[in-house]
Specification:
By secondary structure, the chain is mainly β. The chain contains no helices and 13 strands.
Length: 149
């Protein structure tokens, strides 16, 4: 059974709309358990301290991939049009938004089903610090400030 996101009524898996309120039922994403960080991370080899802030995939699909945070606002999600495209069913199409400004880098959950975690804590919005681990679906991303933040 699936649950209507609008009213909470149960509906059969094959249903496209809720029989109680008529709301459209969305497909669900797979659930997961957040990955706990064993120890404070070190910068991966080849990362210069003068580079722009970035996220580096530590665990999950595409481990080692770098996402440079070189714009004031970046979208994160499973939608191929996202600035940071994370291709896995545990990631919502529109999962989070990252903002880079003079006060630092913030990440805000965009109403995702599985949530956004900084460290082991589920967050609605958080300011990232150098070395923070961000969990989005099966992806564990290491935040590096760089010299351009």
């Amino acid at each position: 059974m699936q649950v209507c996101p609008a009213c909470g009524a149960e509906a059969p898996e094959a249903a496209k709309t809720c029989s109680a309120c008529g709301a459209r039922l969305h497909e669900t994403t797979a659930s997961f358990e957040p990955v706990a960080a064993p120890a404070p991370p070190e910068s991966p080899a080849g990362i210069e301290s003068g580079e722009a802030p970035m996220l580096v995939v530590r665990k999950g699909p595409d481990a080692g991939e770098r996402f440079y945070l070189d714009r004031p606002r970046l979208t994160v999600g499973r939608n191929p049009a996202s600035d940071i495209f994370l291709n896995d069913v545990t990631v919502s199409r529109s999962h989070a938004v990252i903002e880079v400004g003079p006060e630092g880098v913030t990440i805000e959950d965009a109403g995702s089903l599985n949530g956004t975690y900084v460290g082991d804590v589920r967050v609605d919005k958080a300011t990232l610090k150098h070395g923070d681990l961000v969990q989005i679906g099966r992806f564990q991303l290491l935040f590096l400030e760089g010299g351009g933040a």
